Amino acid sequence: MNKELSQAFSEQINKEYFSAFLYLAMSDWLNEKGLNGAATWTYVQYQEELAHAQNLFHYMQYRDEPISFKAIADPSGNWQSPLEVFRHVLSHEKLVTESINNLATTAMKANDHAAYIFLQWYVSEQVEEEASAKEIISRLELAGDNTNALLMIDDQLGARVFNAPVVPGIPTAGA
Ligand SMILES: [Fe+2]
Ligand SMILES: [Fe+2]
């Protein structure tokens, strides 16, 4: 792997851990507000982000590339409502999408077809991440100030369960 690509992979691992940490902070905030379903949803999202980081880590090990570790930023938010939380989910995922696309472009420019193919799973995953955030935002906007509607959405969000993603291209996929 060339140096620039290797460095970009390390940075992406840090970003996935930051994403996990951000969703954990959101889960705590939602739990404090009594929105246990949304707290569950963001906790599952935290688990998914951990898996994203872990699978990048395994890929780097598979390629025998050293990883450079950096501190994970403070994820504390200043949210005022569940709608603000989920708008933050969407804006954050858009940043991650950009980062994944840049990483894939770096792999392509480095003529590293293996890394480019490996990253396709992440490219598709980001489409899903943005779509699910948008869907939740739309429902919360429809609910507006209606507490009954909010609690119904919260119940639905609480049904989410974690399924370890299987990422092709690594021997330890889904670890
Ligand atoms: Fe992710
Ligand atoms: Fe994500």
In short:
With 175 residues, this protein is mostly helical. The protein is built from five helices and no strands. Helix 1 runs antiparallel to helix 3 (82-109) and helix 3 (82-109) packs antiparallel against helix 4 (113-143).
Walkthrough of the structure:
With 175 residues, the chain is mostly helical. The chain has one domain (3-67, 80-157): Ferritin (Up-down Bundle), CATH 1.20.1260. Helices cover 73% and strands 0% of the residues. It contains five helices and no strands. The chain has helices at residues 3-32, 36-62, 82-109, 113-143, 147-157. α1 (3-32) runs antiparallel to α3. The longest helix is centred in the last third of the chain and has 31 residues, at 113-143. The chain is elongated and about 55 Å long. It starts with a helix and ends in an 18-residue tail after the last helix. The model has no long low-confidence stretch (mean pLDDT 96).
